[in-house]
Amino acid sequence: MLDKILNIAKANEEIERLTAENEAATDSAAELINEIGALKEALAERDLRIEEMTDRMEGAAEEIEELKEDAAEVEEVAEEKALAIAASVGAADIVAESDEVDESPETLWQQYHALTQPEERNAFYRDNRNKLFKN
User: Whole-prediction pTM value?
Assistant: First the structure.
């Protein structure tokens, strides 16, 4: 009988220990749940800020495209006015860059060899290096 009482006492001690462990684990789990909730809130705030920044960037990109279009229009108008002014004072026709004739490497070499000043030759070579060696 004494054995049974000792076993019951040991069982009660084990129950108390397990109950304490269970309470500690429950408290730990509650703390973790609270931390998860706080992290979810922080992530939601971050996602909101990212969305706002993305919207701002998209708006800025649209503004940039509009500015590029405006700049192209202004450049076109300025070019037309410049040509009109040049024509009104009797200047010879101006060839636009896109209308330039693509010269052959042989022609470019002839122009290079015709230059007498080293500075001019260096500048010409630097500006036309890729065209000189084009096959």
Answer: 0.42
